[in-house]
From TrEMBL, chain A:
<dbReference type="InterPro" id="IPR016163">
    <property type="entry name" value="Ald_DH_C"/>
</dbReference>
<dbReference type="Pfam" id="PF00171">
    <property type="entry name" value="Aldedh"/>
</dbReference>
<comment type="similarity">
    <text>Belongs to the aldehyde dehydrogenase family.</text>
</comment>
<keyword id="KW-0560">Oxidoreductase</keyword>
<dbReference type="InterPro" id="IPR016161">
    <property type="entry name" value="Ald_DH/histidinol_DH"/>
</dbReference>
<dbReference type="InterPro" id="IPR015590">
    <property type="entry name" value="Aldehyde_DH_dom"/>
</dbReference>
<dbReference type="GO" id="GO:0016620">
    <property type="term" value="F:oxidoreductase activity, acting on the aldehyde or oxo group of donors, NAD or NADP as acceptor"/>
</dbReference>
<dbReference type="InterPro" id="IPR029510">
    <property type="entry name" value="Ald_DH_CS_GLU"/>
</dbReference>
<dbReference type="InterPro" id="IPR016162">
    <property type="entry name" value="Ald_DH_N"/>
</dbReference>
UniProtKB/TrEMBL annotation, chain B:
<dbReference type="Pfam" id="PF01791">
    <property type="entry name" value="DeoC"/>
</dbReference>
<comment type="pathway">
    <text>Carbohydrate degradation; 2-deoxy-D-ribose 1-phosphate degradation; D-glyceraldehyde 3-phosphate and acetaldehyde from 2-deoxy-alpha-D-ribose 1-phosphate: step 2/2.</text>
</comment>
<dbReference type="InterPro" id="IPR013785">
    <property type="entry name" value="Aldolase_TIM"/>
</dbReference>
<dbReference type="GO" id="GO:0016052">
    <property type="term" value="P:carbohydrate catabolic process"/>
</dbReference>
<protein>
    <recommendedName>
        <fullName>Deoxyribose-phosphate aldolase</fullName>
        <ecNumber>4.1.2.4</ecNumber>
    </recommendedName>
</protein>
<dbReference type="GO" id="GO:0004139">
    <property type="term" value="F:deoxyribose-phosphate aldolase activity"/>
</dbReference>
<keyword id="KW-0704">Schiff base</keyword>
<dbReference type="GO" id="GO:0005737">
    <property type="term" value="C:cytoplasm"/>
</dbReference>
<keyword id="KW-0456">Lyase</keyword>
Length: 476, 319
């Protein structure tokens, strides 16, 4: 009846080069041993560009450049001058946000609606926010004249490529550190465009270095003896390996790892908004969100009603071309991730949970997974315990607030949680008991640069964002 | 979703018998989270409706317009001109559909009726001491009967907001029931005046109250108070008609009115209808826009799509 015509965002705003080098000491350079890999568009499997693969020698050059910039330029520079550069970067990001958003959607597969309305505004906001701190560090609660740590090695994931870059680079630079950052191998492009923005902002050479590559590059970077600080966002498995490798060194470490968040819906919740929150909690960014609300805990006496509403709402989700402005759910980022989602979902069915997806046509090429819910899930199911990192929701029920808390906390993770109820006192009671770094009340997946973000238990340690986010980059 | 199930159906019709039953039911409806509702409405507003979808939406929106004039200065000449416009909104293009209805004060109904007779364009009249509703019930009912007798086939009544805000739900309910009866065969649109109800919880309760009492349509506003139709208010009302149909099997229409001036606004409403209640409501029988200046903007955008150029406002009739 009312079919939305295709409304594609134009690709022409992005000027893709056939190949990209490493960004070291203010310049794009070729890797020493000439290795490279391809970054593809997960929605079409089309090759976007050839990316240099940094080896140990390249990491060495990058760390050396960062050290020199720290000693000679960025470390001694007054905070108000560092702020000037960060404000300039923030403004350039805003000016070039359309270009960055399109590139992010191309490389990552996320819908343009999200890269345009969520990722890019938050990226710019992070730089603006931390730019403001650069000359006020003495008022951040870490002593009257806190000092930077030195050279930070930062390894970021593929789910929010540019946003995770901002979370890492903005506070590090504001505090006076220099950085060597490794973007994920499937999503390096916006980091490389960010490198161009650093050049455009005339950021002193060596303050920001970007080395592209896969796990080996990352390992070389975090294990490099010239690094003073390691910050990692990614899987708990890799996080453990990093923690082991830096143990016994002088390096400070911040880890932001996996999650299996409970989104808890009570019987007095505003149902229509709770359903929106459930959808946003698990289908936002194809569920590639470490704090995704991947376990729905719904009070048993409203479970049928909530599920009926949720299914009706899921049938409205538009899955497809990430560059179409009306797309709600885009492509899965990689073949490997798609395989993992499939494997865990099949395990869900095999273990007896009931699987449901709305009728939806998936494109032939590229990596796609229909929004899926599992009902009849118990705490014993793998899909209730392991992080799927995809558009798959496990639905469990509870009877009392105490049971909700018990089930929500019954996981090795502790990154986030959501509470849906009309009762303010219950929100506070629950929030006190949930072992999760972020607790959202009557909303989900809300981010702001002023708010600290981080986990309990195996979801990591350290906080990013807010005044707290400075601590990981100061010698305190 | 509502607190009712199909098994509760017989009880729903009996709620109006007791103040306590009504209150218990209305206050038992799920709450509305203001932030969440506004966020959802804003998100739906970012849909990009282009080319063929836009052309389709514009024609549908024109067919949904209740072309309205509710001024003290209305005259027979003025409303006849408006009725003529309703029949042929774009004299230059016979493929342009006619609007859904013309909406006027009761005294103007006979003049409009002459023009619209047999055309398929409905004739709506506000009644019940519109816009304040602050008159004795007998007068409101007489107002309604007079409008119907003069030829109106749709009545836009106002609820008794004073009674609603004071918690006298049964009084509001009884007035709607009585007005519905006075309407006879005419369709009854119940104006909630959401700008005076203030909270979304109240909007949801008033929507249910109006539907339980037999309203055929629920309408946001009179257009006579500062806050008229908004997207979030319409969202809450759409959710109410959706849930009401699920509970009772009866479909009720929705009419946002006041403040909808551009094609862009109208399309946002259609997207919201499409994604909240679905295509069953994407029809002039179930969704209307109470508007006046909206029509010319729709016509201008329609001409732009067919000819590729913007014609100036001089090419569209002012009525």
């Amino acid at each position: 009846m009312f079919e939305y015509a295709p409304a594609p965002e134009s690709r022409s705003v992005v000027d893709l080069k056939p190949s990209y080098g490493l960004f070291i000491d203010g310049k794009f350079v070729d890797p020493t041993d000439g290795g490279s890999f391809k970054s593809i568009n997960p929605a079409s499997e089309e090759v976007l560009a050839e990316i240099a693969e940094a080896g140990a020698e390249d990491v060495e050059r990058a760390v050396r450049a960062a050290r020199k910039a720290y000693d000679k330029v960025w470390g001694p520079m007054p905070g108000r001058d560092r702020a000037k550069y960060l404000f300039r970067i923030a403004r350039l990001i805003q000016e070039r946000s359309r270009e960055l958003a399109v590139l992010e959607s191309l490389d990552n597969g996320k819908p343009i609606r999200e890269s345009r309305d969520v990722d890019l505004p938050l990226v710019a906001a992070h730089f603006f926010y931390y730019a403001g701190w650069a000359d006020k560090l003495g008022h951040a609660g870490f002593g009257s004249n806190p000092q930077p740590i030195g050279v930070a090695a930062q390894v970021i994931p593929w789910n929010f490529p540019l946003l995770m870059l901002a979370w890492k680079i903005a506070p590090a630079l504001a505090a006076g550190n220099t950085v060597v950052l490794k973007p994920a191998e499937t999503t390096p492009l916006t980091a490389l465009l960010f490198a161009e923005i650093c050049q455009q902002a005339e950021l002193p050479a060596g303050v920001v270095n970007i080395v592209t590559g896969a796990g080996d590059t990352g390992r070389a970077l975090v294990e490099h003896p010239g690094v003073d600080k390691v910050a990692f966002t990614g899987s708990t498995e890799v996080g453990r390996a990093i923690a082991r490798s830096v143990a016994g060194t002088r390096k400070k470490l911040t880890l932001e790892l996996g999650g299996k968040a409970a989104n808890i819906v009570f019987d007095d919740a505003p149902i229509d908004q709770a359903v929106e929150g459930i959808v946003n909690g698990i289908f936002f960014n194809q569920g590639h969100v470490c704090c995704a609300g991947s376990r729905l805990l719904v009070q048993e006496n409203v479970a049928d009603r909530v599920l009926e509403s949720l299914k009706r709402r899921m049938a409205q989700l538009r899955v497809g071309d990430p560059l179409d402005k009306n797309t709600d759910v885009g492509a899965i980022n990689s073949a490997a991730q798609l395989e993992r989602i499939r494997e865990l979902s099949d395990a869900g069915s095999a273990e007896g949970a009931e699987r449901w997806s709305p009728p939806c046509e998936l494109p032939d090429r590229g990596f796609w997974f229909a929004p899926t819910i599992f009902t009849g899930v118990t705490q014993a199911h793998r899909i209730a315990r392991e992080e799927i990192f995809g558009p798959v929701l496990s639905v469990l029920t509870f009877r009392t607030p105490a049971e909700a808390v018990e089930k929500a906390n019954n996981t090795p993770y502790g990154l986030s949680a959501g509470i849906w109820t009309d009762k303010g006192s219950r929100i506070l009671w629950m929030a006190d008991r949930l072992r999760a770094g972020v607790v959202w009340a009557n909303t989900f997946n809300k981010f702001d640069p002023t708010s600290p973000f981080g986990g309990y238990k195996e979801s990591g340690y350290g906080r990013e964002g807010g005044r707290h986010g400075l601590e990981g980059y100061l010698n305190v | 979703m509502t607190a009712t199930t199909t098994s509760a159906r017989p009880e729903l019709s009996e709620l109006g018998r007791s103040e306590t039953a009504l209150r218990t039911f209305l206050h038992g409806l799920p709450g509305v989270d203001q932030v969440g509702a506004e966020q959802r409405a804003a998100q739906l507003g970012t849909r990009s409706i282009k080319t063929t979808a836009k052309a389709q939406a514009i024609d549908l929106a024109i067919r949904m317009v209740d072309l309205t004039t509710l001024e003290g200065a209305d005259t027979p000449g003025k409303v006849r001109a408006l009725a003529a416009k309703a029949l042929r909104p774009d004299p230059a293009d016979p493929s342009c559909p006619h609007v859904g209805a013309v909406c006027v004060y009761p005294a103007m109904v006979p003049y409009v009726a002459e023009v619209l007779a047999g055309s398929g364009v409905h004739l709506a009249s506000v009644a019940t001491a519109f816009p304040s509703g602050q008159a004795p019930l007998e007068i409101k009912l007489a107002d309604t009967r007079a409008a119907v007798a003069a030829g109106a086939d749709e009545i836009d009544m106002v609820i008794n907001r004073g009674a609603f805000l004071a918690g006298r739900y049964k009084e509001v309910y009884d007035e709607i029931v009585a007005t519905k009866e006075a309407c006879g065969d005419a369709h009854l649109k119940v104006i909630l005046e959401t700008g005076e109800l203030a909270t979304y919880d109240n909007v949801r309760r008033a929507s249910w109250l109006a539907m339980l009492a037999g309203g055929d349509f629920i309408k946001t506003s009179t257009g006579k108070v500062p806050v008229a139709a908004t997207l979030p208010v319409t969202l809450v009302m759409l959710e109410a008609v959706r849930d009401f149909r699920a509970a009772t099997g009866r479909q009720v229409g929705v009419k946002p009115a006041g403040g909808i001036k551009t094609t862009k606004d109208a399309i946002k409403y259609l997207v919201m209808v499409n994604e909240t209640v679905g295509t069953d409501w994407l029809d002039p029988d179930w969704f209307r826009f109470g508007a006046s200046s909206l029509l010319n903007d729709l016509l201008m955008q329609r001409t732009k799509l067919t000819t590729g150029t913007y014609a100036g406002p001089d090419y569209f009739t002012l009525d």
